[in-house]
Structure to design on (564 residues):
């Protein structure tokens, strides 16, 4: 049975603000990475495990829509969902929530493929059925 | 007649690399902003002019597709196009070129609206016809 | 009686690494700011309080000595001490610890003055004796 | 005879500003690296050459004193000097100038040693006398 995923939380940093006194839009792409690292560890595919078996998840694309801006010291919570997982590729979907009011601050996606150390594509289902199952369990149907 | 736009050029920085020895994907979103600032200055809508008349261009969305990775000290050239300009909103399209081989390293888009100092939407055609024309001249038909 | 300060902790992020597969040295200066924000909140001088009374702490200088490098996903702990507090100026001293082995990864300092909204220097002892006492309590003798 | 070094120049970026509408102090440490890369290339010790012979220059320490703040789109010029060059270690000194008014915005230093690919210290005078001479020529007496 799949484990319940805890959203990734942290405060925004002063150095992430810009001259409009809001969080600069580029930081959301970095937060997606922080949340993804945390999420992958929770589903059982930690960075250490990825390193050990020689699989990595390069970013093929990233996008973000900005809905309500954030300010310095806001507590945020990021929820993730896996979409379109094929064992070759997957899309991760993100929602950035402002904890103070529950507003969705931004939504976004990153697209990934699975590659080995030589950057060659991997078929998880065939090569790593156990990891395939991990992701399959957490993929939105 | 519209002026020819010079692509934005610079080298990648060491601090923009990551542990894969490639440029971290989040930096492209920042480069889009650098190139946009330069582009707007070339079309006659410099940051100083925007400040003076109290118009700004918040980012509503940003996306990037990564095609060929870049490394430290690569010389890049960024070409921009305005798309879907309505006087209320516009999309800017970006191509990041690796100058050494001419490869398209990445393509992306940012979506913007025009607002005044109170963050209220502006209708350029009605309120600033001269600026409307500037953007209209550079919009891809 | 003064409250015991809890060190600031977090993991290093992937986007903070560089092509040597270590954390880029510039990030430590940013971590000092994160730890300082957390520390000031703990001593009773939160960012919200600073905003309310109109006092801020610009950075006059920053320095860092790098002792043992850090890698992606390392858990770090940052301890702070106030030094040379005069009510006009102060120095904050930082130690970045690698939690896995207890090694001191880096030490550093930031120098600050106290200013009001017009960026004019403030004498805390005279103008804000209560805040003067807060800092005095936590200053290394 | 030694070549005259051209200062490193560029504009500040929007994403380098913070909520005080000034350039965030951490960016100066990154600019020092940009200016250093450019400087080393000018003295004849480019990144490509370093890679080829397997010598690198890790940062042992970095510091910056902030004198006059900078804002978005300011044109800056960074001048470098080598100090305390011993063939084992060296200090690089930086001055960040605001081109619009000639003000010194900040001064700083970075400390380095010379190491090989295994991160073992190198004695330039003995192992690479030609490179030793390059640095010696540009060291402030």
């Amino acid at each position: 049975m799949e484990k319940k995923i805890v959203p990734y939380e942290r405060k925004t940093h002063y150095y992430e603000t810009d001259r409009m006194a809001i969080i600069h839009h580029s930081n959301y792409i970095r937060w997606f990475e922080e949340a993804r690292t945390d999420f992958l560890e929770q589903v059982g595919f930690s960075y250490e495990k990825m390193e050990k078996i020689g699989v990595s998840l390069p970013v093929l694309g990233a996008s973000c829509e900005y809905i309500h801006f954030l300010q310095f010291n806001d507590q945020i919570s990021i929820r993730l969902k896996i979409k379109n997982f094929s064992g070759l590729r997957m899309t991760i979907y993100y929602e950035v929530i402002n904890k103070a009011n529950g507003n969705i601050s931004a939504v976004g996606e990153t697209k990934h493929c699975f590659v080995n150390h030589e950057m060659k594509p991997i078929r998880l289902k065939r090569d790593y059925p156990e990891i395939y199952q991990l992701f399959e369990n957490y993929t939105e149907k």
